[in-house]
Amino acid sequence: MKERIVSGMRPTGKLHIGHYLGVIQNWVELQKKYDSFFFAADWHALTTKYDKTETLKSDVIDVVTDWLAAGIDPEISTIYVQSLVPEIAELNIYLSMVTPQNWVERDPTLKDMAKILRTKEGANSQVSYGLLGYPVLMSSDILMFNADAVPVGIDQVAHIEITRDIARRFNNIYKTEFFHEAKPLLNNCSLICGLDGNKMGKSYGNDIKISDTEETTTKKIMTAVTDASRMRKDDPGHPDECRVAYKYWEIFADDEQINTVRCECEKGLRGCADCKRMLAAVVNEHFAQIREKRLYYETHIDEVKDIICQGSKRARTEAAKTIEKIREIIGMYS
Ligand code: TRP
Ligand code: SF4
Q1: Cβ of 272 below 6 Å from ligand 2
Q2: Does residue 204 sit within a domain?
Q3: Does pTM top 0.70 for this prediction?
Q4: For the chain, which end, N or C, has fewer CB atoms within 10 Å of the first or last residue's CB respectively?
C-alpha cells in the first residue's frame, strides 16, 4: 500500500509563481508516489478573515484551478474543500479536548500570525478562539486521513510537531495505536523573491501570478530590481549584486544560459533592459503549458466544480469511515 500525504492551502485567490515553485510543483511530483489528499483550507482562511468572506467562494475555485493547471491530477489525487468534509470539524472537537492549552499558546507560527493581525488591523483586533485553535484544526486535517507525511514549507513545521504530539497524546489516553505520527516533508527548492527583492506576496504587489498573461509577465519582469550600481548599459555589471533578475535566471535557465548571462553582464555586453526582456521570454516559456491549461479550465469552470465535488465526496467517504472508528475508540454513544 502507498503511503499517504495530506496538504492544504488557505484559499487566497489566484496563486503566484512562488506558490508554484515552492509548493505545487512539489505536490505534482509527490502525487505519483503517494496516495495524495490536497485541499483548500477554507476554515483556516476564516481564522483571520471571518469578516471578509465576499471572495471566499471564488478564491477556492481560483486555487483549485491553479492546481489543476499546474498538473495536480484529479484521477490520482483527491482534491477537496475542507468545509465540505464536516467530519474534520467533529474530529477537531475530540482533538481539542486532549490538547493542553499551553501547547497552542506557545505555537510560534500562531504568535507570528497574531502579531501580523495586530499590526494590520490595529490594536482592537482580537485573536479569536478559532485562531487559537489553528494548529488543532490543522491536526484534524492531517489525522482525519491518518497521513504518513505532510508536504509543507518550513514555516509550518511547528504545526506538524503539534500534530505529532496530539496524535501521541490521543493514542496514550485512549490506549490505541490508531493515529500515525505524520512527518513533515520539506521540499528543498530555493525560495523565489518578489520583483522588488522582498518576499513574494500578493499583498505586496511584487508577484507574478501563474494566471498572468505573457504581456503582463513581461511588463512585471521589466520592473525587477537589478544591480543598482550600474548606470549605463555598457558598464560592467555584477550578477551577484543583481538581487532579482539574476536570481530569476538561476531559477529558470539552464547552466549554459546562466553562464552566458553572467559573462555578458560582467563584460558590460548586455544591458539590464535587454537582459530582463530575454528573462521574461524564458519565464513565459516555462509557464506556457500551465497557462494554456489554466485558460482551458477558466472556460470550463463547471469541470473544476465537478472535480471539487467528486473529490470532496471521496474525501468524505474516507473521513466517515475514520470518524466511526474514532467515536468507538473514545467511547461515544452510538
Ligand atoms: N496552515 C497551512 C498554510 O497556511 C495550510 C494548511 C491547513 C495545511 N491545514 C493543513 C497544510 C494541513 C498541511 C496540512 O499553509
Ligand atoms: Fe542583472 Fe542582467 Fe542587468 Fe546583469 S545585465 S545586472 S544580470 S539584469
Answers
A1: yes
A2: no
A3: yes
A4: N
